[in-house]
Design brief:
The complex is a heterodimer of chains A (about 375) and B (about 210). With about 375 residues, chain A is α/β, with parallel strands linked by helices. Chain A contains eleven helices and twelve strands. The longest helix of chain B has about 40 residues, at about 25-65. The chains are: A alpha/beta (about 375), B mainly alpha (about 210).
Chain lengths: ~375, ~210
């Protein structure tokens, strides 16, 4: 009842032009959004009321309460505004210490959708620079320019592992991780799988690809089929090379471990996104005596792979694998762009450290992400 | 055409999603959100393909009494039984509720077996740690010493031995470990962007039938 009376008082006083107002209220179109939002802000009050009633008015209409919020707050976003309509706002105190406490009327604010998220300007600049470098180096590669890259033992070992499997008359097990096809690590894994499948097709080595998701199974099956066709061995492709197992993490592990123990592949390639199952898979593979090559960008799983596998592709090495394995000039061009941007980022980090030490926060603030 | 159409679709979707990341305007963002929603529909259809693949491969192996065929039989029978219970004896769309037949199968069989698999990790960690901490080089020595300090520093006895041990453990985690981790993460992030560009620009052609590089 007391609250209802307070609301009536708020509406009566809020609509009155003779009420005394205390503190400024700022209303602005919320930046970098889809529109329909106005952000309000006000200074903290020395004796805040129990609650604030947020009042809003459109041109030619009277103030109406749109929400009730805690008295301790100093900001609010109106998500019910309409684009293109100018709104003014007022706050009215409610409850203990709130009667008769009002803010000034805000300046009119017009919500509009943004065409560019300025909070992502730093990302946009880096991405644009990166894309420009990729295109530049691809152009260079097409004109015959060649670069030398540091050798990555794990990548060189992939062909060696497949060769070893061929000599032993055993298969190659390719595990593409436990994430779905929308994960970039799984996409990178599918790209590497294409190169691996070309090698197994060429050497006539059995290939087993257990998939943890039906989408991964569908893509992996197409990739393997395409790879066998590419090297003129479409006849050697078998529809049970790629098989869907389950999307449940540990059921998948049980199935893959079973394959390792029963089929005894001579090479296990664990390339993709892995989590708690990384060591379960890698240790089982180690027990079988298979040569193991793992690659992931999940930092927390890297130690497990380093311990249990013969070779481990760490972070960027994993993403560089397809360029290394295919030796395609355009892919190597993108690798060169990646290296160049890395040098630029290192220089920027050093510059940022120096500027921060000198008390200048400009660069650090520019690169802060939201 | 089998190669070009998937390439064009992936390029168009990739470019649109990239633009959608920077443009919050509803003209772009609403379509961006719709494209994200399409993924659910596509994935739902791939489940039909996945199920067909699983049944085909396993029933074939059962028919020709391939090696370990009883395991395949157990898989197929479990799959069919779970589906029957889920569809017909589990209160329709409330099949995940407590007390349904589906929920009973999940909690009684799947959950326990899954926990068993996970618990094996403890033994695997022990065997992997035994190999990792064999000191054969200077690097292995550093690793073993760091691991020892960290393990002792993270339990109460570390502080009881000497108050500096937990502090050294924290320093190891916050400075050298963080530096290495961030270096790996930055390299991986650049790799992600480079892979994305390769797919969007159509120079990565591994996927798709006959799509060799």
């Amino acid at each position: 009842m007391k609250k209802f009376a307070a609301w009536i008082l708020v509406l009566v006083l809020g609509a009155s032009s003779t009420t005394a107002f205390g503190f400024p209220l700022k209303a602005v179109d919320t930046p970098n959004d889809k529109g329909n939002n106005v952000t309000l802000s006000w200074p903290a009050q020395p004796h805040p009321p129990e609650q604030w009633a947020v009042l809003r008015v459109e041109a030619g209409k009277t103030y109406a309460a749109i929400d009730t919020i805690g008295g301790e707050l100093t900001g609010y976003t109106d998500e019910t505004a309409k684009n293109g309509v100018p709104y003014q706002y007022r706050l009215a105190g409610l409850g203990a210490g709130g009667v008769g406490v009002f803010s000034e009327d805000s300046q009119p604010a017009v919500p509009e959708p943004s065409w560019f998220d300025t909070g992502k300007l730093n990302v946009f600049i880096v991405i644009t620079l990166f894309l420009a470098l990729v295109l530049y180096y691809i152009g260079q590669a097409q004109r015959g320019k060649q670069w030398s890259f540091r050798p990555i033992a794990g990548l060189a070992a992939i062909e060696e592992a497949i060769g070893r499997s061929t000599e032993m008359g055993k298969g190659v097990l390719y595990v593409p991780g436990v994430q779905d096809i929308d994960d970039i690590q799984t996409i990178a894994s599918m790209i590497i799988l294409g190169n691996v499948a070309r090698m197994t097709a060429k050497y006539e080595t059995p290939l087993m690809v257990p998939a943890n998701s039906p989408a991964v199974y569908t893509v992996a099956d197409e990739v393997v089929k395409g790879a066998y066709a590419d090297v003129g061995r479409a006849d050697a492709y078998r529809s049970d090379m790629v098989r869907y197992i389950t999307s449940e993490q540990f059921a998948y592990v049980a199935a893959v471990n079973g394959m390792m123990l029963r089929e005894r592949p001579a090479a296990n390639l664990l390339l993709g996104a892995f989590f708690a199952e990384s060591l379960l898979l890698a240790e089982t593979g180690h027990e079988t005596g298979a040569i193991q090559i793992a690659g992931t960008a999940n930092v927390h799983q890297l130690p497990f792979f380093v311990v249990a596998c013969d070779y481990t592709l760490i972070g960027e090495e994993y993403y560089a694998a397809s360029a290394y394995l295919s030796k395609d000039a355009k892919l190597l061009g993108s690798l060169k762009a990646s290296d160049t941007i890395k040098i630029l980022l290192v220089l920027t980090i050093v510059a940022g450290c120096v500027l921060l030490t000198l008390g200048n926060h400009t660069l650090a603030e520019f690169f802060a992400t939201q | 055409m089998k190669r070009e159409i998937p390439l064009l679709i992936s390029m168009a979707a990739g470019i649109f999603v990239l633009i959608g990341f920077f443009v919050p305007h509803p003209a772009i963002r609403d379509i961006y959100d719709d494209i994200q929603g399409w993924v659910i529909i596509v994935v739902a259809f791939t489940y039909v393909l996945g199920m067909a693949n699983l049944l085909r491969i396993n029933t074939e192996q059962i028919q020709r009494r391939a090696k370990d065929w009883p395991y395949k039989l157990a898989l197929v029978l479990s799959l069919i039984a779970t589906m029957i219970v889920g569809f017909f004896f589990s209160r329709g769309s409330h099949y995940l509720d407590d007390g349904t037949g589906f929920s009973w199968i999940y909690l009684t069989f799947y959950s326990s077996m899954s926990s068993t698999m996970f618990s094996l990790l403890a033994f695997f960690i022990a065997s992997a740690a035994f190999r990792a901490f064999r000191v054969r080089s200077v690097e292995a020595l550093l690793l073993a010493v760091a691991a020892l300090i960290l393990m002792i520093g993270r339990v109460p006895i570390g502080n009881a031995i000497h108050p500096a041990i937990p502090q050294i453990a924290d320093w190891l985690m916050e400075i050298p470990q963080n530096a290495a981790k961030r270096g790996i993460l930055m390299g991986a992030a650049l790799g992600v962007i480079a892979t994305g560009f390769r797919v969007i620009l159509g120079i990565e052609r591994t996927y798709g039938e006959g799509g060799g590089t």
